[in-house]
Design a protein that fits this description.
Layout lengths: L10 H15 L4 E13 L2 E13 L2 E10 L7 H14 L3 E6 L5 H10 L2 E6 L2 E6 L16 E7 L5 E5 L16 E7 L6
Parallel strand pairs: 3-4, 4-5
Antiparallel strand pairs: 1-2, 2-3, 5-6, 7-8, 7-9
Helix pairs in contact: 2-3
């Protein structure tokens, strides 16, 4: 796995970086394997993908198409539309686009309505802009079923608490340089 910042590596090294990220995540999937620069015949020609992932689940075979874009400017909708067209042509089940840059709102809206995952890679961390149709915020599987975030400013004079999945942000109107303490609290919310 690359230890460098994704912005400091070449576009091809970024593709391999994404492949290695997926290999770590896919360990629990039956028959999971990835390929870099795989060519696949579609209904309207051959396409080469930065990364492909294949696995077995529920008695079926799945193909995921992955593009890795090491860009400095925001990703436009057209790149997501092209990926959607390729998905349909080769008959894949899912498409993902990893990028070192942010995504324009048109790209996010298109991806949301077509079930394409958009992932922003920054400082080795992944931020999912979209994951599937009718996107809901991603909550890490290791978190307890009922949790909340308690956010306090460093003086302890204000806080915001919410159930995970229902995002509430603290009031930053007094300046973005304020420091906040975030605690994960496990609670039994029962029907609240």
């Amino acid at each position: 796995m690359f230890q460098l910042d994704p912005l400091e590596i070449s576009p091809e090294e970024f593709e391999v970086y994404v492949k290695e990220l997926l290999e770590k995540e896919g360990l629990m999937l039956e028959g999971f394997h990835t390929k870099h620069l795989e060519s696949i015949k579609g209904t309207d020609g051959d396409y080469t993908f930065d990364v492909t992932a294949r696995f077995e689940a529920l008695g079926a075979s799945f193909l995921v198409l992955i593009e890795g874009k090491r860009y400095s400017k925001p990703i436009e909708r057209e790149l997501v539309q092209i990926l959607q067209q390729k998905l349909e042509s080769v008959g894949a089940q899912k498409a993902m686009l990893f990028s070192t840059s942010l995504f324009r709102s048109g790209a996010i809206n298109f991806a949301s309505s077509h079930g394409i995952a958009l992932i922003h890679v920054q400082n080795g961390q992944l931020s999912y802009e979209t994951r599937s149709l009718n996107h809901r915020p991603y909550i890490q599987a290791w978190l307890p079923k009922f949790s909340s975030l308690l956010v306090k400013d460093e003086g302890g004079d204000s806080y915001s608490m919410s159930r995970l999945g229902e995002t509430q942000y603290p009031d930053l109107s007094r300046g973005s340089s304020r420091k906040f303490l975030i605690e994960l609290i496990e609670r039994d919310w029962k029907d609240s």
